[in-house]
Amino acid sequence: MEHKYRAVLWKNFAASIDMLTNVIELCPDAVWEKKDKFFYMAYHTVIFLDYYLTYPVKAFDPKLPFTIVPDSELPPAAVDDVMPNRHYSREEMVAYIDLARKKCEAFIGPDASQDLMVQWIKRSEIGLHGLCPSVVEHYTVLEMLFYNFRHVQHHVAQLNYILRSEADLAADWISQAE
Q: Cα separations (Å) of 6 from 97, 116, 129?
């Protein structure tokens, strides 16, 4: 039975990831280069997608590096204090998403063997990367997967809103991935 649950979770989580890819690929140059809110939100979503899929957390190795910035130094369009080290291209962002998608499938796909009921983060890992929100400190791997899935979908909706407002575009809904 767990095999079926994993398959359902994978198809839906992958659809959310694919929607993130689509909204970034659809973004015109004028929005990507000039509307910092879109870029920062896309980056935030991608970096946390990867981080929340990392187990053990100490193994997190971001492919698009960041710096934790004090609130007093944040640009107005920043989503949080996790600032990309530079303005990454759409192609770099999409390549990172592709890596995260593969990581997700290996982690939860129908053939995965990860125990989903263990605690996601150890106490000694909480401050390692400066990314762990206190709300998830006691989550199991399964709870983190749902949290991450919802987090991606939440920001995909916001990115679509920005695209619709700035360029009269929006990425299509994907009901399930293969």
A: 20, 10, 28
- What torsion do the CA atoms of 80, 82, 87, 92 make, to the nearest 10 degrees? -110
pLDDT, residue 169, reads 96
- The one-letter amino acid at 132: C
pTM: 0.95
Task: For the chain, list residues with pLDDT below 50.
Answer: none
pLDDT the model gives residue 1: 52
Helices (H), the chain: 2-26, 29-34, 36-52, 90-108, 141-167
DSSP 57: G
Question: Alpha carbon 111 to chain centroid distance?
Answer: 22
Question: Which tokens hold the place of 93?
Answer: 């962002």
